User: Fold these one by one.
Assistant:
Number 1:
Amino acid sequence: MKVVLQNLTKKYPSRNKNSRGEVVAVNDFSFEIPDGQLIGLLGPSGCGKSTTLNLLSGLQKPTSGRIFFGDDDVTRLPAEKRGVGVVFQNYALYPHLTVLQNILFPLQNLKGKDRLSKSAMLEKANEVARLVQIDGLMDRRPSELSGGQQQRVAIARALVKMPRILLMDEPLSNLDARLRLQTREEIRRIQRETKITTVFVTHDQDEAMSISDMIVVMKDGVVQQIGKPQEVYDDPVNLFVAKFLGTPPINVFRGSVRGGRLYIGEDVLLRVNGVPDQQVFVGIRPEGFVLNDRGAFGCALGRVEVMGRDISVVAAHPNAESPTVRAIISAENRANVAAGEVRFDVKPGKVFLFNQATQERIRFKTDGRGSDT
Ligand code: ADP
Ligand code: MG
């Protein structure tokens, strides 16, 4: 089912009694989610992810804007009539019911013509239990399950009515690291098998990148960028998006453009044709550095960490926005980095420029370092 968000806005009255302002939790959000896709809604805490999800589920009503499921305008439709399945971070299972009873619960609440026979209900419950691989645990109570198993039960309960849309709000946040990895792959598999249009909320960029067909990056209620994970990573529209995606994070420096050349300190990193002279933020991805004793860019060497396939060069630079600069270098290219200074060339496609005032991306064309090196 295609889902359309049309100029969706949600304002809350301010919690601060002394201020008359309001909190704009979601600000003019427009997006068309293609049928059958998994969308990762990504951003820091408080950016409006849960509010967006609650608007889709019907738990909250928008201040303005509209929501369509397919061609149906569901903006004013109550939650129980929308045909959505919702999974929360804290599972929200009924503790006194068994796994089977928890999964059956949404079916038993159906009224009138939607109500199934008892055997049809059981069949459906068993089917989704198999799908999420908890069919061996049907007689247990939630307290007798691990966190990962409880979350599978919650997913089964959300799926049993075959919802038009599946909504998941930080579903993996209560799981330990290893289970989180495993469960996210499970969610991906289940979503692929059922082909239910899914919105997956997370503050974890790694999680969103790995699981999503498309990601939506939000900040302060405003959508920053929408795209395939790799496209957003390779082509961020502003400094916020560039910094939010990627581990280790992008390295940010204060630099300047003078006469079509990009400077950090006195080092000339690249020609940047067509960019007017100005102060800029320079973002360089960790994998954008190439070790070269006569490279364009010098940093003070901190230490070298060997990580198997790659080595990580930890350095420092007076113009860097953070205390350490991190370069990830393929282990084969290991050079002599014993000296106090380490020099790099940079890969132009891994270097992004941003306006220092607006933090918007400045695009450039380059032919490398130029002839004067
Ligand atoms: P996220 O899920 O991304 O952490 P939320 O959607 O929960 O963000 O919140 C977005 C903003 O709206 C935050 O500033 C939050 O404090 C505010 N907010 C959320 N719910 C309410 C509420 N019921 N009343 C007032 N403000 C709220
Ligand atoms: Mg939230």
Note: The chain has eight helices and 21 strands.
Number 2:
Amino acid sequence: MDDLIRRAAKDLAAAGNVAALTGAGISIESGIPPFRGKGGLWERFDPMEFAHIDALMRDPTKVWKVLIKEMKEILDRAEPNNGHKGLAKLEARDKLKTIITQNVDGLHQAAGNTDVIEYHGTFAWQRCMDCGKKYENREVDVSKIPPRCDCGGILRPDAVFFGEMIPAEAMWRSRQAATDCDLMLVVGTSAVVQPAAMIPVIAKENGAKIVEINPEKTPLTFEISDYLIMGEAGEVMNRILEAMEKI
Ligand code: APR
């Protein structure tokens, strides 16, 4: 892995416009379970039964009771880990501009990154299904399920459920960032959910170098990525930053 760490440090040092695409894997070290693989949420809950917009509209109490309450409690406790902090340090060194994240935990902003596109929305906010009023997740009282807005409407996370559109602004800003970058870090995503998994392909088609950080291979690894650093996000980011000091 050492030579790949050095290679990534050199590539980042030489890059003019770096973007990152992140997935649940970068937040595992903050105590947030991934969706797939070991301990994945979808191993315990059927996403179509609990994370699809039709399920939420059909039975908001059930979805709130099972999925949303569990996610809310985990997210309320989560703090950024070395993976998030590493990307924040890259921005501080003017070596990372935009993060496109599939995560809904708000940890990139908490770590200090200032240009974060939340491709699947966010759990950090709840919004009323009737009037659209937004509430900070931490201030929503879930002792009564489902929680309600002052207007009486039911609250839902401001996240994108299966069956919903990606927010239009997130969609086009991500496409722009992927087109403009000359290096894209792809960290902690299984790259199986569309349209997010297309983002590295757009970057590649526009001449960017694609550097994957993941303990496992993904569909991107052979077709799209220039190389895969097989490791955990926190440790790999720390080692890349160290190696950049020596350049
Ligand atoms: N560091 C980096 N990557 C890791 C780590 C780690 N410590 N541990 C696991 N991973 C990798 C796994 O190998 C896997 O490739 O993180 C990835 C997690 O994959 P998923 O759980 O599928 O998460 P993600 O790719 O973000 O899912 C995409 O699916 O259910 C929807 O909306 C949900 O945004 C989510 C989307």
Note: The beta strands are 18-22, 98-101, 116-118, 121-128, 134-136, 155-159, 183-187, 209-213, 227-229.
